[in-house]
Amino acid sequence: MGPRELELPGKYLDYLTDSTELLSNAEAMRARMANDGYLLLRSVLDKELVLEARRQMMEILAEEGQLDPAFPIMDGVRNPDSQGGFRGGDRKLTDVPAFVELVRAGNLIRFWETFLGGEVLPFDFRWLRVVPPGSFTGAHYDVVYMGRGTLNLYTTWTPLGDVPFEQGPLAILEGSHRFEQVKETYGKMDVDRDHVQGWFSNDPHELIDKYGGQWKTAEFDAGDILVFGMFTMHASFKNTSDCFRLSSDTRYQLAADEVDERWIGEKPIAHYAWNNPEKNVSMEEMRNKWGV
Ligand SMILES: O=C(O)CCC(=O)C(=O)O
């Protein structure tokens, strides 16, 4: 993870707690979320639908020349000349019918209705990652990207296919939703307003050494989901395979609550002032200023 190798289980890393048995008990799930900052739920989604979404996307990636034609497209083996990358909001991929059904209907919406206790609003913008070999995501809170509406907002991280360790699964920093000093500073940031890059840290040890907590991860199967709140620090392991790691992260809140206008509507505004080279401030500079 980042520049380090972590041992599993070890001081800095252990396995995610499986909360699948709580699925029909909203109160128990909310209590677990409040305590751990996340829920790992196995086989919640229709596996056939997940694989169909994967197939529809892989067909597009194959047409784009991103996949190595020597292998079955469902393996997602990268053509060494191609980049993959962040495809969030790229409707060529995020509008494929099986994926839209997967993240906006059926079991996932029923789960959120149970958990949130009312009518659910999924954000219209859908984040999609075609993570190439060698790539990873640095540690961050999601609130810095989508914190303008209710904070009773949750991320669903969905592996679109099996994600074994070598493909670089997501990891949660358990306990990070109680890092009060970090929440009061970094957690109040907005990437479009403040022009800061977003990732708090690439070093998985430093946060634990300074604030406590422990990274938690797992291998994922198609159909599993990992859900968490806006103040749960998360990151991904490096993809050390030859394949793209295909996954989505989509957001859910109560329809009656205030909404961050950047992520809603036929053509969501999305980030509009982030990564402006003339205004950019480094995270290092901001962390020095905040003293975190
Ligand atoms: O999949 C990843 O690498 C990052 C996902 C993420 O940051 C999220 O789910 O909010």
Write the layout of secondary structure elements.
Blueprint: E1 13-15, H1 26-36, E2 38-41, H2 47-63, E3 85-86, H3 91-94, H4 97-104, H5 106-116, E4 120-122, E5 127-131, H6 143-146, E6 153-159, E7 170-174, H7 180-184, H8 191-194, H9 204-211, E8 214-217, E9 225-229, E10 234-236, E11 245-254, H10 283-290
Helix pairs in contact: 2-4, 4-5
The protein binds 2-oxoglutaric acid.
Folded structure, characterized:
With 292 residues, this protein is of the alpha+beta class. It has one domain: q2cbj1_9rhob like domain (Jelly Rolls, Sandwich). The protein contains 10 helices and 11 strands. The strands form 2 sheets. Strands 2, 3, 4, 5, 6, 9 and 11 form a 7-stranded antiparallel beta sheet that branches. Helix 4 (97-104) packs parallel to helix 5 (106-116). Bound molecules: 2-oxoglutaric acid (AKG). 2-oxoglutaric acid is lined by residues 129, 131, 137, 142, 155, 157, 170, 234, 236, 247, 249.
CATH topology name: Jelly Rolls
Number of structurally distinct domains? 1
Beta-strand percent range: 15-25%
* Helicity range: 25-40%
Characterize the biggest β-sheet. 7 strands, antiparallel
Low-confidence stretches: none
Helix-strand category:
alpha+beta
Number of helices: 10
What is the H/E order?
EHEHEHHHEEHEEHHHEEEEH
Small molecules in complex: 2-oxoglutaric acid
Compute the separation of the termini in Å. Answer: 21 Å
Computed over alpha carbons, the radius of gyration is 18 Å
Number of strands: 11
CATH superfamily: q2cbj1_9rhob like domain
Going by CATH, the architecture would be Sandwich
Shape: globular
Which CATH top level class fits?
Answer: Mainly Beta
Overall residue-averaged pLDDT value: 97
